[in-house]
Amino acid sequence: MHNFELVKPTTVEEAVAALQGDDAQPLSGGQTLIPTMKQRLAGSEQLVSLTGIASMQGVTISGSTITIGGATTHATVSAEVAATYPALSALAGRIGDPAVRNRGTIGGSVANNDPAACYPSAVLASGATVVTNSREIAADDFFQGMFATDLEEGEIITAVRFPVPEKASYQKFEQPASRFSLVGVFVAKFADGVRVAVTGAGEDGVFRWAEAEAALSANFSAAAVEALDLPSEALITDLHGTAEYRAHLIKVLTKRGVNEAV
Amino acid sequence: MTKITMTVNGKSYSGEVEGRTLLVNFLRETLSLTGTHVGCDTSQCGACTVHVNGQNVKSCTMFAIEADGADVTTVEGIAAPDGTLSTVQQAFQDYHGLQCGFCTPGMIMTATKLLENNPKPTEHEVREYLEGNICRCTGYHNIVKAIMAASGQEVTPVAAAE
């Protein structure tokens, strides 16, 4: 790994200022960034650690809204939202492995927008709001393709705000070596309709399955999904599975999600 | 270089590190605590697992500077000062939960944390919690048996494969 300077600001303002420097990059839990830097696929002169910023830590539950600080670990999210948003808790509790969940953070995962990461599906299916140091971004505007988001250079996710659905489920078909999702489907039923977000499958990263949303909004049952046919164009083909296989999994997992939503 | 200070196994240590110095390098090379192993160096295998402020983490995937001021426990801090093995360590010995021993420090640290959080896990929960700890010798059966025994539960003669 190339050497760099590591700074540890304690406020969002200090972190934003530090990120104005030439070739500076934010570091959250580091569970993706550090292995990537070891391979020299990433690197910068300065890393700005976000995990020492108190205001970016923790979970606040207020009525039917959950606000999660950007530097909150998966383990903390899983524990704190278990009663309020069980599907989100289950998702956070199955990312990676226990040690990874003690370091990896929601802000890091969402900002990275890995096409097979779990969190983007929850953010998109919940219609969550990504809060940064300068603005609020709706989930539908945030994810812009594989590893691409609406974030500007030096902009930090300070929190993610989730509306709590009536019921929801995250179904993960895990790639056992990487523990990422080969395909993951998040189904969220709100009073005004159903949202379905798919991760691990889209060539442009996480996406909403509009046909399933329309069918499930009219009739929230697995039977409503049965009649749908998801085209495999724009789905990923790789050594783990073809686009057709992924299309099949999406349908199966969506049905499971409907049946198991809580 | 940055000066850092941390408590490791109850004793305070200071040292100078680069930004890129990993916690595991600081433990092994600066403090000579070589019980913590580097297996894959890619966050997969868990041989480098230590406890930082009471949480199990992979010390190959955390910078030493991030542990400045932290309370760290390594496998050297698990046995009693007189050398008496912990319940988990003794169970690994009794149930032959190791062959080459390379993964064992990480297994002990992970198993110790599991039983702190969940004193009577099911066999399924044990296997799930070991997801981030890879052993290439034992096939995990004796490791799972050892952890079940350490939790004071009955050890089935042959652990069911999953």
Class from helix and strand fractions of chain B: alpha+beta
CATH topology category name of the largest domain in chain A: Uridine Diphospho-n-acetylenolpyruvylglucosamine Reductase, domain 3
CATH class of the largest domain in chain B: Alpha Beta
Give, in order, the helices and strands of chain A: EHEHEEEHHHHHEEHEEEEEHHH
**Greatest interface (CB-CB under 8 A), with counts per chain:** A-B, 26 and 27 residues
Strand order of the largest sheet of chain A: 4-5-8-6-7
The global form of chain A is globular
Biggest β-sheet of chain B, characterized?
5 strands, mixed
Cross-sheet strand order for the largest sheet of chain B: 2-1-5-3-4
Q: Kindly identify the CATH topology of the largest domain in chain B.
A: Ubiquitin-like (UB roll)
Task: Provide the helix percentage of chain A.
Answer: 25-40%
Description:
The complex is a heterodimer of chains A (262) and B (162). Chain A is an alpha+beta fold and 262 residues long. Chain A is built from 11 helices and 12 strands. In chain A, a hairpin with a 2-residue loop joins strand 10 (181-190) and strand 11 (193-199). In chain A, helix 3 runs antiparallel to helix 4 (86-92). The longest helix of chain A has 18 residues, at 243-260. Chain A is globular and about 55 Å long. The relative contact order of chain A is 0.12. Chain B is α+β, with helices and mostly antiparallel strands and 162 residues long. Chain B folds into 2 domains: 2-77, Ubiquitin-like (UB roll), CATH 3.10.20.30; 87-150, Orthogonal Bundle (DNA polymerase, domain 1). Chain B is 29% helix and 15% strand. A 5-stranded mixed beta sheet of chain B has the order 2-1-5-3-4, sandwiched between helices. In chain B, strand 3 (49-52) and strand 4 form a beta hairpin. The A-B interface holds A 1-6, 8, 27, 30-31, 34-35, 37-38, 47, 49, 51, 75, 96-100, 102-103, 179 and B 2, 18-20, 22, 41-43, 46, 49, 55-58, 61-63, 65-66, 68, 110, 113-114, 129, 131-133.
